[in-house]
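Continuing from the previous page...

OK, I double-checked the sequence for Germination protein M against my notes and this is the correct one:
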Amino acid sequence: MRRAWSILMIFAILLSGCGLFGKEKAVKEIDPPKDVTYLEDEQSLQEIEQTNEKEKATETIQRELYLIDKNGFVVPQTFALPKTNAAAKQVLEYLVENGPISEMLPNGFRAVLPADTEILSVNIKQDGTLIVDFSKEFAHYKPEDEKKILQAITWTLTQFDNVKRVKIRMNGHDQHVMPVNGTPISEELSREDGINIETNGVIDITNTHAVIVYFLAQEGDQTYYVPVTRRVPNGEQDQLTAVVNELIKGPSYGSGLLSDFQADVKLLDAPKYENGKVTLNFNEAIYGSAQKNVISQHALHSLVLSLTEQPGVEKVAITVNGKADLVDENGKPLSEPVARPEKVNTGSF
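Thanks. Re-ran it with the corrected sequence; updated structure tokens here:
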């Protein structure tokens, strides 16, 4: 009897239990576990973060990279690089052969730093000296590139306003000479050391001073400007006149460089400087064609780039026989002085 009663009780509990399990299942379907919601939120957050990173990566900024052209000159080319908080390290990485510059190189140009060179660190001191530490691969370059490498590093880094000088290290050790050909390295590399230095015909270099002038070069349909450092005698003419006369003289024979100045172009007066502006007064030979009042774009740009390398010069105004009635090749009046572009060889200037 007791056994029969126990069996009935168990059977009753089982029947009631089915109802409980059924209700519990229904509740779960209506109110799913919270960990599912957490997972969905986490996935959404990751997607947002990835989208933000992609958007940030697409932001670019114009940077000058000094590369070597087919004629062996160190030349600025302007590229749109991704924005970064480590801009100085970034531009150096873009100077490395087979690095990120590979897909961007213009025809006729090559990178200046040896393949696999790593930028171990970049630190700037309060006095504006930027200390760069390269990996050991930095020493694996051709001897003829040694001075070009120094110039490219210096001019690429000093495009930043807060960088005045550059100091080079390799694997943490200060470099006083270059590792291949032994070129001395100044404690303070700067733009004052020059770029694409010409010393042809200079007998007594101690009695000269440097000027930088921009000549033309061409690769296919592309025309670009090349900075050249020349030595001019001390005391014979003021600095601004010296710059203009070197442009008129033209590039050295066999250099591969070009000029858009006629041989009989002359300054009629000494350049006038006032509040950052230089005014030049030429004879009519400055006209780049038979069409009166038209000055060649290339001649104009060479003048502006060269003269604004001089301290304090920001703009250039041009007159002919004292009259400011010139136009450029596009017919735009040059009634206002022309300023230096922010970057060189951008395609528009």
